[in-house]
Write a structure and sequence with these properties.
With 244 residues, the protein is mostly helical. Helices cover 75% and strands 3% of the residues. Helix 1 packs antiparallel against helix 3 and helix 5 crosses helix 7. This is Mitochondrial adapter protein MCP1 transmembrane domain-containing protein.
Length: 244
C-alpha cells in the first residue's frame, strides 16, 4: 500500500486507488519530460528571435534586418517553422494542460488538495494569448493574399519597417504588447529551468531587464522609421484585422 504525506503525517492510499495512482504518477513524469524538451526546443527559437531586439536596443538598427533575414533562413526552411516553432509551442502547451489535469487526478486518488498554480505556470498561461496575437500579426495575417495586404514578403516584414510602423503608429499598444511578451517569456523560461526562490528572483530581474531592452528597441525603431507609402496601407490592414 502506497502512502502520501499530509500535515506531517503519512497517509495511506487505499488498495483500490493504488494502481491508477501509480499509472498517473508515471504519466506525470513522462509529461514533465515532454514539457522540458518541447520548452527547450521553443526556447532555442525564442533566443534566436531575441538577438535583433537586443541589437536594436543598442542602437544597431542598421544591421537588425540583416540578422533577421539570416535567422529566418533557419526557421522559415521547409517544415522547420511548422515543427520547430509551432510544433514545439503546441506540444509544450498541450503537455502542460494535460499534466495539470493528471496532477488533479493524482490529488483525487491521494485524497489531497490540488496544488495551486505557481507563478511560472501563471506566466505560461498568460503567454498563450500573447503568442497567438504575435503569430497572427507577424505571420498569419501578413500572408493573406487578399488586397491590400497581398501577401507581404519576409523582406517587407522587416523590423525597420513593419515593427517600426507599429511602434510609430501605435506606440502605447505596441510597447505594452511587446514588453509584456518579452518579460513573461524570460520569466517563464528561467523559472521553468530552475524552481527555487533564487531562480524566481533572478527571473524577475532578467524579465524586467529584457522588457526595458524591448522598450528601448521599439523607441529606436520608431525614431529611425522611414515611411514607404506603398507599404503603409498594407501594414495598416494587418493591424485592422486584429481590430487594433
Amino acid at each position: 500500500m502506497l502512502a502520501r504525506l499530509e500535515s506531517n503525517h503519512v497517509m495511506p492510499i487505499s488498495s483500490a486507488n493504488e494502481k491508477p495512482y501509480q499509472r498517473l504518477q508515471r504519466l506525470n513524469k513522462r509529461l514533465a519530460r515532454v514539457q522540458t524538451y518541447s520548452g527547450i526546443a521553443f526556447g532555442s527559437f525564442a533566443l534566436l528571435h531575441s538577438v535583433p531586439t537586443i541589437l536594436a536596443a543598442g542602437g544597431g538598427v542598421g544591421i537588425v534586418d540583416d540578422i533577421v533575414m539570416i535567422s529566418r533562413t533557419l526557421y522559415h526552411a521547409p517544415y522547420a517553422e511548422l515543427v520547430w516553432v509551432a510544433g514545439s509551442a503546441g506540444v509544450h502547451v498541450l503537455a502542460s494542460v494535460i499534466r495539470r489535469l493528471v496532477q488533479r487526478r493524482i490529488s483525487f486518488y491521494s485524497e489531497s488538495k490540488p496544488a495551486a498554480l505557481t507563478a511560472q505556470q501563471k506566466s505560461g498561461y498568460a503567454l498563450i494569448p500573447l503568442l497567438l496575437a504575435h503569430s497572427l500579426s507577424h505571420r498569419v495575417i501578413p500572408s493573406f493574399y487578399t488586397p491590400p495586404i497581398s501577401a507581404l514578403s519576409p523582406s517587407e516584414l522587416s523590423y525597420a519597417h513593419f515593427v517600426a510602423y507599429a511602434a510609430r503608429s501605435r506606440p502605447y499598444l505596441s510597447t505594452a504588447a511587446y514588453t509584456t511578451l518579452a518579460g513573461l517569456s524570460v520569466y517563464h523560461a528561467i523559472t521553468g529551468l530552475r524552481r527555487s526562490r533564487k531562480a524566481r528572483t533572478v527571473a524577475a530581474k532578467a524579465s524586467l531587464t529584457y522588457a526595458v531592452t524591448t522598450a528601448l528597441a521599439l523607441l529606436n525603431l520608431a525614431r529611425s522609421f522611414e515611411e514607404l507609402h506603398y507599404l503603409t496601407p498594407r501594414y495598416e490592414a494587418v493591424y485592422r484585422h486584429l481590430y487594433v
